[in-house]
Structure formats: C-alpha cells, structure tokens
Amino acid sequence: FFSSRRRHTRSLCDWSSDVCSSDLKGIRLCGSGAAVPRLRVSNDDLSARVETSDEWIRTRTGIAARRVADETESLTSLAAAAGQQALQNAGWDASSIDLILLATSSPDDLFGSAPKVQALIGAGSAVAFDLTAACSGFLFSLVTAAQYLRTGAMTRALVIGADQLSRWVDWDDRRSCVLFGDGAGAVAIEACPAENDGLLGFRLNSDGARGDCLTLAQTSERAELLPGMSHQRGGYAPIGMNGQEVYKFAVREVPAILKQLLADTNTEAASIDWLLLHQANQRILDAAAERLGIAADKVLSNLANYGNTSAATIPLMLHEAVSDGRIQSGQLIASSGFGAGLSWGAALLRWDGPTS
Ligand code: UT7
After folding, report:
1. What is the model's pLDDT at position 144?
2. Which helix (H) or strand (E) holds 66?
3. Is the pLDDT of residue 239 over 90?
4. Which residue among 189, 199, 281, 298 has the highest number of C-beta atoms inside a 10 angstrom radius?
5. How many Å apart are CA 167 and CA 190, to the nearest integer?
6. Distance CA 289, CA 112 (A)
7. Best of 244, 278, 314, 343 for a ligand 1 pocket test (most atoms within 8 Å of beta carbon)
8. Which residues pair with 41 in a beta bridge?
9. What helix, strand, coil percent values describe the chain, rounded to 5?
10. pLDDT at residue 16, rounded to an integer
11. Which helix (H) or strand (E) holds 3?
12. How far is the CA of 5 from the centre of ligand 1 (A)?
C-alpha cells in the first residue's frame, strides 16, 4: 500500500504541469458499474410462499420483483463484477487504484470481503476493507474514500455498495421479505483539481437510540467452553423490522437532511438535475421529492425491478441512469441514504464520467 501511495503521488502532477498533489482537493466521479443475480423473484412468485399479493406490494412499495443470489453467486462475486465494470467505464487499469471500500452488511466473511474483491479484480496495490452502515453504507463509504483523496494520501478509489440480504431475510415474514433483494453497484473516484470537485457537500448522521426498529442482530446462544465456563456461540437472527417506524423516520429525516445540505451549499432545489435516494419504498421517494419541491420526473427509481438492495441501491441506480443516458456529464445529483443504525446521510454530487 505504501509503495503504491508513493507511486501515485508522483503521478498526480500528470494533471497538468503546474498542478501538483497539494492542489488536488477535488473528487471526480469517473465510472460506474453494477451487477445483480440472475434469479428474478416476482411478487406473484412470493405470494406462493407468504400471504401477500402483487397488488399489495406494488401499491405499498412500488416493487414488482427482486433478484436473489443462488448458490453459484456470492456477495464477493457480485461486488467484484460491479467494481470491474466501474473500472472499465472509467478507463482505468485495476493496478492503478489505491483503495477499495466495500459497503456491506452481509459479507461472505465477517472478517471482511473487500480483500477478496481486491484479489478478484486484480487491484494488487489497493488497500481494501469493509464499511458497515446498512443502507447508508454506500454514501458513508463514498464520503470516507473522498477524505483519503482530498488529503493527498491516495489518488484513485473504488467505492462498492453490495448486499445479499436474501441470506438474512425471514422469507416467512411477509412484513419484511417482500422488500429486499440482492445486488451490487460501484463508482470509481479520483482526486482532481478543486474547481472540478464532484462532491460538493455532505452530511452524515447516526442515532443508535432509535436503532431497534431495524436490526440484523447477533443471537447470543450460550455454549459451554470448559466445565464451569461458557461463551457466546456466534449466529445472527433474521432481519427484524418495524416498518412503520422506519417509514416515519425516512420521510422525516431524508427531506430534512437534504434541505440542510442544499442550504450548506447554497443550492436551489430547482437546480438539482436528479434526486437519487436509497431505494426503499416508492412512497418514501415521492414524499421526499414533494417536501423538497423536486419534480417527479427528476426522481430516479428502479424499485420495481430490484426492490431494496441495501448498500447497493444508490450505485445500482446511478449506473442504470448513466448507462441509459439519463444522467449526463456535469449534472447535479442530490443523493441520500438511510436505514439501520439508525443511520442517514446526504451528498451533493456532480457526475463527471462517461455517458451514453
Ligand atoms: O432500508 C430501509 C428498510 N426498511 C424500510 O424501508 C421499511 C419502511 N416501511 C415501509 O416501507 C412500509 O412500512 C411497509 C411497506 C413495510 C409496510 O407498509 P405500511 O403501509 O406501513 O403497512 P402496515 O405495516 O401498516 O400494514 C398494513 C396491513 C396490515 O394488516 P392489518 O393489520 O391492517 O390487517 C399488515 O398485516 O398490511 C398487512 N401487510 C401485508 N399484507 C399483504 C403487511 N405486509 C403485507 C404483505 N402483504 N406483504
């Protein structure tokens, strides 16, 4: 890692002959990628397992189907595929990246899945680690990666949001199982001159006191270690959720944090090109847009196809809208992630990658 840092610090002056590393305080969002499992599970499919209906799920959430990883796929393989595509779209060689941040709450390995992703991608110079902040994980990771770039410590980073919550959903609990799906998305970012900065502002929040309404909690099963000594055997309970509480939290906090961010950055809501929110429920997206005074046709949504893919929703949606030409280079994107923790955050972004 340190040798790569020295190498890239030298190459920073490639920007122009009179710009050197200390001037590179900006962040460019240069490339996006995504990957989803093959298996598509429709609302009708689910209604064969729990008492629900396509009509109920569509009306209450906007979801029509979700993707579920089968035994040939994994969190690591999805994350690596998304990351590789982001590198390709940025036109970068994997060996040029310094950092891989993997936002996930469902790693293949509790010690962290990012190093496996690093190996699969072939990014031998990158330090790679996981960051857990549930559905806010991608935004938290993007902001975290940006700090390494802004200080000049690193030059290029790959930020991946990926989750395989199908492992942890109680598929017999109709109140939660209809919401979630698996997927991965990634964004390649690099240091750039401050005047080209694509991370124009951010805010991050946590409130553990309200965290009980959305959990994927450890099960503390007592097991004997030695006669007279016990330990806690590891394991996790399925996702527990008080849907109404999470819903109220989201429709209150998301517009509030975005309003604060727009005020911080002196940005008019009318100048936002796209509202890119964590894809949890269409009603949450609509309520947030209405409270912010942002027109419905600026609200990005792919809930119908993928449901809530947790840390993956924002980069998955971003990649889709970049690929189909909706998001154009130079456009302003107001983004917000929210979820378990409780955690929520917002960032004002400018896309600077290739567009279709
Ligand atoms: O990343 C964050 C993850 N979590 C979330 O985003 C959750 C946010 N919350 C929500 O999206 C909504 O609260 C839900 C979609 C989960 C539920 O919608 P709701 O409008 O808040 O429904 P509800 O919980 O008030 O339930 C209304 C009725 C209940 O029946 P009764 O008590 O009125 O007879 C539920 O039992 O709907 C019933 N119900 C269902 N019926 C058919 C709950 N889930 C289902 C279902 N199919 N899947």
Report:
1. 98
2. strand 65-68
3. yes
4. 189
5. 33
6. 36
7. 244
8. 66
9. 40, 25, 30
10. 41
11. helix 2-11
12. 49
